[in-house]
Amino acid sequence: MLEVLNITQKFGGITALDDISFTVSEGNITGVIGPNGAGKTTLFNIVTGIYSQTSGQIFLNGIDISRIPAEGLASRGLVRTFQNIELFNSMTVLENVMVGLHTQSKSGIIASMCKAPWHLAEEKRIRAKAKDWLDFCGIADLADHVAGSLPFGKGRLLEIARAMAIEPRIMLMDEPAAGLNNRETYELAGLIRRIREKGVSIVLVEHDMDLVMDICDRIVVLNLGRKLAEGTAREIQENPEVVAAYLGEG
Ligand SMILES: Nc1ncnc2c1ncn2[C@@H]1O[C@H](COP(=O)(O)OP(=O)(O)OP(=O)(O)O)[C@@H](O)[C@H]1O
């Protein structure tokens, strides 16, 4: 469903990515790992439309999305979560999810803010849908809390709820376990699996090796801008080149 084809990215004299290709299958969790400076963030930013690659192409369900900017990708089914959580801190948890749904709805956010009567039914539908996504992410009990007051781990779940509300086909997650404790990481793993069960593909750039090895169907290993290996968790753990370049370092 997502095809990354021969992506090369140069920053001046630095080749951050050198001819990277891989495919993410429908309903699969694909991990992208590698040591510092391997090119993970650069790849993430290219796939999510933040950077425009020097060469190569990206296809989403057969459509070339290579030059589509970030804001045009959600409507095509590709969403991302950020390493530094980006929420509307003064809004409630529920409103944070509703905002995403409003921007998609026919009535739009301005009409809903004006509380026009013909939009009330739509508003009710959006509120119910947003609640369902909070429930899916295990934070329904926090619906009326102000988002800025949430503990970091819950904020991350809210960010995922907001992304899921758009009903994406694929979600790219930038280090979702960063800053989480063991219990929160365990909850996150369960949630990512539930997202996969919904048929949504996931690309995970992550440093937490236990999480990656636990939940990923496929793993792509980058090193110094090149693809060093690709395979299942077991194949990656047993790959001597990966162990030498990365896994063995700790
Ligand atoms: N905007 C930029 N301008 C110049 N060089 C860059 C830029 N972004 C990344 N690089 C370089 O590209 C290479 C890959 O960096 P990148 O941040 O993608 O690696 P990474 O695998 O995400 O590393 P980390 O795990 O430390 O986040 C590095 O040599 C980095 O210095």
- Tell the overall outline: globular
What share of residues are in beta strands? 15-25%
Structural class: alpha/beta
Q: Are there runs of 5+ residues with pLDDT below 50, and where?
A: none
Could you describe the largest sheet, including whether it forms a barrel?
Answer: 6 strands, mixed
Could you give the order of the helices and strands? EEEHEEEHHHHEHEHEEHH
Q: What is the third-level CATH name, the topology of the largest domain?
A: Rossmann fold
| Count of domain modules | 2
The kinds of small molecule bound in this structure are:
adenosine-5'-triphosphate
Give the averaged pLDDT, no decimals.
Answer: 91
CA radius of gyration: 19 Å
**CATH architectural grouping of the largest domain:** 3-Layer(aba) Sandwich
Helical residues, percent: 25-40%
Domain ABC transporter: 2-249
Keywords: ATP-binding, Nucleotide-binding, Transport
InterPro entries: AAA+_ATPase, ABC_AA/LPS_Transport, ABC_transporter-like_ATP-bd, BCA_ABC_TP_C, P-loop_NTPase
GO molecular function: ATP binding; ATP hydrolysis activity; L-isoleucine transmembrane transporter activity; L-phenylalanine transmembrane transporter activity; L-valine transmembrane transporter activity
